[in-house]
Amino acid sequence: MAKKRREHDEEATARTGLTRRGFLSHVGAGAVSVAVVKPATAAPAPPPQAMAAAELSKVSLDINGRERQVLVEPRWTLSHVLREELGLTGTKVGCERGECGACTVLIDGVPRYACLTLAVEVEGAAIVTVEGLMNGEALGPTQQAFLEEDAFQCGYCTSGQIMAVEGLVQGNPNPSLEEVRHGVSGNLCRCGAYAHIFAAARKAAELRRGTGGES
Amino acid sequence: MNDPKEALYHVHGVDVPETPVAPPTDQEPWGETRVVGKPLPRVDGYERVSGTAVYPADLSLPRMLYGAILRCPHPHAVVTSVDSSEAEQMAGVQAVITGFTPDDRATRQHSELIRNNLFNTRCRYEGEAVAAVAAENPYLAQDALRAIKVEYDVLPFVADERRALEPDAPQVHEAGNQVSDTQTYERGDVEQGFREANVVLEQEYRCECEIHTPMEPHGCVASWDGESLTIWESTQGVYNVQTQVAAALGIPLSRVRVVGHYMGGGFGAKLQAGKYTFLAALLAKQTARPVKLTLTREETYLAVGNRPPSNMRLKAGVKNDGTLTALEFSGTGTGGAARAGGTSLLDWLIRELYVCPNVRTETTDIYINAGPARPFRAPGHPQCAWALEQMMDALAVAVDMDPVQLRIKNVPTVSQARNGIPYTTTGFHQCLEEGARAFAWEQTRNEISREGRDSHVRRGVGVAGGAWAAGGGGPPSTAIVKIYSDGSINLNMGASDIGTGTKTVMAMVVAEELDVAPDVVQIEHADTGTTQYATGSGGSKTVPTESPAVRAAAIDAKEQLIELAASEMEVDASAITLSDGKVIADGDTPRELNISALRSLRRRGNVTGIGYRGPNPSGKAVTPFAAQFCEVEVNIRTGEVNVVRFLGAHDSGRVMNLLTYRNQVFGGITMGIGYGMTEQRVLDVDQTGKMVNKNWHDYKLPTALDVPADMTCIPIDLHDTEANTTGAKGIGEPATIPTAPAVANAVYHATGVRVTSTPIDPTKLIQALTEAREGE
Asked: Does residue B379 sit in helix, strand or coil?
């Protein structure tokens, strides 16, 4: 996976001429004001290349195993691109500031907040959304476990909870209750379905083990 | 206020419509049920876990724009000018509406609404709307808001209702800061009652303001088709929104279609349209394009409702044998800058929950410069329970009784708050008794008393009771059940499923009557254009309101089908039953026929059954009851409280679906833990009047680490056959009423310290523990 990601990075660089590292310096100088602390003796930095907020750049995103080419503003978050540009609205947005976890997706297997991730940051990374857990029309084991245990009410935080659990059980085939609680502690559920979510997470692990650990 | 529903869910300016009086029904109560009551997963679970359910925030229409609202940053100010010229020139910005911009041709007819109502220049709370924009994407919309220059005359503010009635307090409204006359209630002779008491206690309590913050922010998509408007709204009640939009925009109800299939939580904050709804419609009209307007999280903290803060004083008298002799209560609260029920039902449990002949209450609603309240999961009740249930606990200690036994001693058999009319059913006694047994209440208390107090981690257990004023539902409601010629079934109803499992329960009701599996029942719901009238899903009344109407519709459809079959099979209708998609004719030689084989049904296309919600029994009170029990561990060095386990014993009538019922109970407990332990709106009352914690980081909801995994649900499954034809009462709200005081009582049991103001956080508890030590 890591190797694949590096290759993607290089391809992406070749295509757009903009590395993620380079991009961040653009953003630092442009859309977001960031205080840059430098030693007083350092030579003055070259004037930053400001990029207009609305300037579009092409990124190539690996989403649910498919490559998607998208024109994005550098400031656009991954959650915005997934939902509003690509129509993958299974990923929800609750706060846009990394507090609720409704937008959780897997990035190279790790559950991360798509609202705190810029689309241009994840070029080349493997992104999995709740839609990517499906086997065609069939639910994946984590989704199935949430359904059976009634691990949701309104369902709006559910995709994020499912992705947090998916990330947990991919790395830990038999999580303890405490591991489950920590695994979903970054995901708020205002309806308060936590007790059922804990049960669903244990069942998800069980179902995965039953299906040979592949979803 | 004999019917608290009227006070609770009345929306100013909107009459509650009536459906025709239901035809007399002779529906027998269900006996043994085949489907109803079972713990079945939801009929829409697939959509919700696969990500295919489309919430209003997910909707995308061709050429759709994104709206955003500029809001007043001051708690009290007059807008003196709005300069939107720069915003209007920005690339990608398609519309700007302010109270100062020249009339747009498309929205000119609404200029009065825009100037006086939507963007009134007098802003009485932080977050009042000042301008709105529509742009090609949400980022550009926010850019446009930043480019609008607003000048404000900042006025003195008052942001604390405890200071708002002082003579020199700034005035929120010209007529003063008291919303209306103090409301009073009295029965018996309170002074005499206190004289009869062996013990009289008096205590002040405070509950902080709680914010709903449903996971999906409030929002909608508005789209015009000529003179017809369609709104996809994240709402608990599509008909409420339709009524308000039609009235605000002056268009016929028939031309406003509101759709609300999925919505991401409401808890009372989404029973009405918002300014954002009207603004989305106006922006869409001005641009002739669809507009999606979803509020930011911060806006949901400021402008779309809260549970009012409450300041309460309760004096109670009790005899040594545990008989209550008198209760005297006074409370103040604030619905913010609007008349919004700041003390709505704040004294209800004092009047209702325990037998007491002598009761006096008074409540005073006060204006402050803060966002308006909205109904929030059992308005007034968690606050009142916080006071009453801690007082009951203190009385039990004072007369040396077990707190469960003191409550059982005073369980009422009639609704005292409603002039003594009887309850249809009351399971309060069983809630307390069976809950205590399942919790191992006595054993645990004995264990704890044996443990002694050597450790710095102290265990404690607590109990609290509750009842909910409006959990019986009632008319109006209409439902339609269609049986198609292939035997498949469609249920059509207007009610929203706000996450409580309404669709699932209703499918189970149809399945029960027509003897099919619930997933055979396909549901159309929550769409004013295509489904039947329903009141908003609030007040824990959706199941008791809708399920009888759905049952009646299913029975009507069944009777029509049987009639067709009887004539086709040439037998008497009474000889026919339905079973698993088949018509079975009893007789010397029993015959069965698939529904799809009925020629007469194929010719007709389908049979359509209509059901109405009949009236509630007159002279009776339909009331859900609850008792909750919890165990805590308190670290007396740090003030940290670990809630170890919780048990909810609830009488909400017949359990319709054990799985979703349990989910409601645990969800209510979880929300109550937040109310009691972490949540509070913090206003900077001295310097700026602004809310300082308008985000989920600083305003802390319970997370997976804050709630016990050990939760138990004990349903007191009393079928309330007198209340309605399915025997169900509401569960959503009762489930959160007793939670916070149960925690407070457990903390007292563990430490000997009473925390009488929410939330019980470590800072407050350690201070209370220190004071108690110093006082020793």
From this structure: coil
CA-based end-to-end distance of chain A? 17
* Locus of tokens 């006096």: B360
Q: What pLDDT score was predicted for residue A1?
A: 39
Asked if B265 lies within 8 A of A190 by C-beta distance, the reply is yes
Instruction: Please provide the DSSP assignment of B15-70 as one string.
Output: PPP-PPPPPP--PPPP-S-SSTBS-PPPTTHHHHHHT----GGG---TT-EEEEEE
Name the phi and psi angles at B335, rounded to 5.
Answer: -95, 20
User: Which of B42, B46, B50, B139 has the highest number of chain A CBs within 10 A, making it the mutation to test binding with A?
Assistant: B50
Q: Which two tokens stand for residue B454?
A: 């050597």
The pLDDT tens digits of the residues spanning A16-67 come to 334 333 344 444 333 343 344 444 455 566 665 655 666 899 999 999 999 9
CB contact under 8 A, A87 and B671: no
Radius of gyration of chain A (CA): 19
pLDDT of residue A182: 97
Segment B245-265, tens digit of pLDDT? 999 999 999 999 999 999 999
Tell me if B244 sits within 8 A of B11, measured CB to CB.
yes
Residue partners of B437: CB distance under 8 A and separation at least 6: none
Q: A198 contacts in B (CB within 8 Å)?
A: 704, 709
| pLDDT, tens digit, 9 for 90 and up, residues B541-563 | 999 999 999 999 999 999 999 99
ipTM: 0.96
Q: Is B576 on the interface with A (CB under 8 A)?
A: no
pLDDT number for residue A6: 42
User: Does the beta-carbon distance from B48 to A195 stay under 8 Å?
Assistant: no
For B675, which residue in chain A has the nearest alpha carbon? A190
Q: Residue A169 belongs to what H/E stretch?
A: helix A158-171
Q: Which residue has the higher pLDDT, A14 or B299?
A: B299
B663/A196 CB distance under 8 A = yes
**For residue B727, how far is the Cα from the chain centroid?**
21
Predicted local confidence at residue B25, as pLDDT: 55
Answer whether A150 sits within 8 Å of B659, measured CB to CB.
Answer: yes
The candidate with the shortest Cα–Cα distance to B310, out of B387, B377, B369, is: B387
**Which SS3 state, helix, strand or coil, does residue B70 take?**
strand
C-alpha–C-alpha distance, residues B53 and B526, integer Å: 14
C-alpha B727/C-alpha B729 separation (Å) is: 7
Q: For B367-410, what is each residue's pLDDT tens digit?
A: 999 999 999 999 999 999 999 999 999 999 999 999 999 999 99
How deeply is B762 buried, as exposed, middle or buried, from its count of CB atoms within 10 A (0-12, 13-18, 19+)?
middle
